[in-house]
Design a protein that fits this description.
By secondary structure, this protein is of the alpha+beta class. The chain folds into three domains: 43 residues; 144 residues, no CATH class; 100 residues, Endonuclease, Chain A, CATH 3.40.960. It contains twelve helices and twelve strands. The chain has a four-stranded mixed beta sheet, with helices on both faces. It has a three-stranded antiparallel beta sheet with strand order 1-3-2. A three-stranded mixed beta sheet has the order 4-5-6. Helix 3 packs across helix 4 and helix 7 runs antiparallel to helix 8. It is elongated and about 85 Å long.
Amino acid sequence: MVRINPLPEGLRYRAFTTYESRELGIPAKRLRAKDLSDGGRLIHVPKGRPLDLVERARVLTEATPGAWISHETAAILTGLGLPPWLDGGKSIHLSKPHTLPRVRRSGVTGHRVRVHPGEVMDLDGIPVSVRPRTWLDLANVLPLNYVIAMGDQLIRRPRPSLEFRTEPYAYLSGLQLLIRQHPNLQGVEKARLALEEMQVGADSYPETFLRLAMREAGLPEPELQLRLNPTDPMSPAADLGYRRFRIAVQYDGAHHLTRQQQSRDNRRDEAFLSAGWSYFKLNADDLADGFAGAIGRIKKAKLRAP
């Protein structure tokens, strides 16, 4: 029986590259032992070890000098999100500068792109497209309403107590500059159209979809983050609405199901109702309906308003 020498502690339980093994002085024949499986060119994986998206992204960039995570994969890793019908986890998207050959690997979608300084960041040791560049890259494959909604998430004001940041991921002026720097990128015209429709104030994709649906239905542009008392920064706020017609609309996503959040929501709801506003509380069922039923009710409330 051939004795298999144990791997260094740092490599026993994770995928690693041939480059790493050489730095540690591991003989090439040790990489062919039965406790390792072939993870693709220059990649070795402990036998039976499933790789999640983060580890796949990490080891692929380590095995592909000059490449970085981009497009759909970058959207997932940076929390931008993707439409449910666009599965960004099956294939890892890797970009390289346009002067280098395209990445060709099983399970990888390769891109050759023009990139400017500052468009790639380090995310826990993984090179990843920054969020604004990811938005621009995805404009080619996403419908316009998703490009607008993703853009709204870039420019929205964060909640420092929850997100541990004080600045938005991007400003409109920065996105305009980004577009000017990539005039020939596929999807850039759609991104330019999206810029004209983006608004600061939507905290989620559904809130943007609701705003766009209300506009499409002939309603006026709603005010976002509508405070009951506009002079009091601590006053309860609804996601959007019309102060003139005393109409407030709230979209409650999954995070509103927690007990603590429900208590805050109940106080907000009671405040608007006690003040005599028409108050609409929407959820995923309304989203699935394209907000058609909710918009009908909002229109009726607008007609009844003094």
